[in-house]
Amino acid sequence: MAEQEIDLCKLIEQYGSEDRCRKYLEELRWPAGVRCVKCSNEKISRIHQRNQFHCESCNHQFSVTAGTIFHDTHLPLWKWFLCTYLLCESRKGMSANQLKRTLGISYKTAWYLCHRIRKAMAEAHGHKLKGTVEFDDEMHMGGKRQRGRGGKYHDKRPVIGIRERGGHLHFIRSSEVNQQVVDDIIARNVDKTVDVIMTDESRLYNIKLTRFRGKHQPMNHSADEYVRQEDGQCVTTTAGKSALSLFKRGIVGTWHRVSVKHLPAYLNEMTWRFNNRKNPFLFRDTIKRMLNADNLEFTELKHRRMNASPSTQGSH
Ligand SMILES: [Zn+2]
């Protein structure tokens, strides 16, 4: 079952009940059979009435959701599954308001659910981009709106997009953009075997001073030179730009306003979906991550939310 591609009908057919969801989580969590979460012992008995396991060795009792993001929730598992599926499948993401209507849950529950799922979507650090890598430092996101109608946003944060052509996308939020920051980002995100690094002609990119010298290809945006031919190779920064513009549409169209505080969570969601665009098992892999991600306490989230400015509330 775990290796099957999923669509909405299959989802409802196969995971439309609490028992089936539990069974699936069990398969994903312990593919070689249930083990005690405390002592890893394999001798386990089931307590069917309570949906729990009992460890014959240390007497610990636990459920399949113990210690996971699904734990201590009053929401049925099949609603978790449905919400996860919707977040995986909608290209631009879904707002808590939309999920509230679709799933028939409260706004608070929808908001909390989205943030827990987003947390699990965070990509493992250390992945490096290869081949043709394109840089974009022109995006500013988040921030608060000044009072009054038509007030401008201030405190926006730069978000740098880096894209491996035909491959992964990384978004990096930064408090500022200067040469040091750019050099650090390149060092952390670009593999040493990279063929070419494409950027605009900004003076921020002094790549000849780094170990990537000789691999830099600046582009002249002011002259509308988005695409040109060189040595038979097409030189362009538009691949990076299209991923960024998709992200911008996601923010504007779905989430309306994103506070600086929550920006990394939305970047995680967007990047996870984009980088898995060809993965037929995206739903399964997201659920797997949710089983492994730390439980995000509601109090922690609520605290973050209460500290957000009034203009950013109600739109996540
Ligand atoms: Zn045990």
Explain the overall architecture.
- The protein is an alpha+beta fold.
- It contains ten helices and twelve strands.
- The chain has helices spanning 8-15, 18-29, 77-89, 96-103, 107-121, 179-189, 238-255, 263-275, 282-292, 298-306, and strands at 44-47, 52-55, 61-62, 132-141, 144-145, 153-154, 157-164, 169-173, 196-200, 216-219, 227-230, 233-236.
- Strands 8-7-4-9-10 form a five-stranded mixed beta sheet. It has a three-stranded antiparallel beta sheet with strand order 1-2-3, with no helix packed on it.
- β2 (52-55) and β3 form a beta hairpin.
- α1 runs antiparallel to α3 and α5 (107-121) packs across α9.
- 30% of the residues are buried.
- Mean pLDDT is 79; it is low at 222-226 and 306-316.
- The structure holds zinc ion.
- Residues 36, 38-39, 41, 55, 57-58, 60 line the site of zinc ion.
Please provide a brief summary of the model.
The chain is α+β, with helices and mostly antiparallel strands and 316 residues long. A hairpin with a 4-residue loop joins strand 1 and strand 2.
The run of helices and strands is HHEEEHHHEEEEEHEEEEHHHH
Shape: globular
Helix content: 25-40%
Indicate the mean pLDDT. Answer: 79
Q: What is the structural class?
A: alpha+beta
Largest sheet: 5 strands, mixed
Could you tell me the number of beta strands?
12
Computed CA radius of gyration, to the nearest angstrom:
22 Å
Total number of helical segments?
A: 10
Fraction in beta strands: 15-25%
Model regions low in confidence, pLDDT < 50 over at least 5 residues: 222-226, 306-316
Q: Name the hetero compounds present.
A: zinc ion
Major sheet strand order: 8-7-4-9-10
